[in-house]
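Problem 12. The chain below contains 257 residues. Write out its predicted structure in token notation.
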Amino acid sequence: MWNELVDAGLEPKDAKFYLAVLTMDAPTVAQAAEAAEVSRTNAYDIAKRLAHKGMLSLIESGPAVPGGGGGRGRTVLRAADPQYLLDDWNQRRQVLERLVPQLRAMHAKGGAAPRSRYLEGAVGIRTALFETLDWPSPLRGVLSMRDLMTVPGAAAMRDYIAGRRERRLWLHVVRSPGKDYPHGWPSSDEDFRRTRYAPDGYIFTMTMIIGRDAVAMLSSKQENFALIIESSEYAEMQGNLFDVLWSASNTDPIAPA
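Solution.
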């Protein structure tokens, strides 16, 4: 079993020592060292390390010799409930879930040169789309709705909308009536969406989602790729162009001629 603990992140000697204490009744460091087959010197370091992680407790048990009066007590070890390992992992995971988006934002700004990533196929399109859920609100988008309903598909789009709703992530979107569905994805406070429709004659065959520091472009099924450009300047330029398009667009769809 110790090898599974090693896979979970413990050093091999630490894993053996923890298992020895777990299966013994309040052993001393020396007793646990013998059971774990490590030297007594190493055992003290291991015990302190595991105690620091919260996996062991070091307890003063009283005089080493019964009736010894003021004699020095001895230290025994008690293993924490193994449930602690799962609770600790869940706690660290929650911290990382809050931290990783901030670190990614810093990473995107950290380099002097912009970064671009090409993602191929339907899987790449879905990956790029769902990555935008980690971007700050609001997003701005130019959507080709019929193409999105083909790739990544209706189920993925429902999941994406649910993801935005869960994160309270607003999307300001312009769509072309010629690529739209009747009654599809109108403005909705519940879905955190503001929708406008491009002037007649403008047809979008790709989808573009603009964040604060990055832009994601999703092709139709015909070319079947996604491209993410991480650049604050590029995102700002595309955001400005979007604002011009937004101001020229209509709040109600105009049926194509």
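Discussion. DSSP finds eight helices and nine strands in the chain. Students who got a different answer should revisit the alignment rule from Section 12.3.
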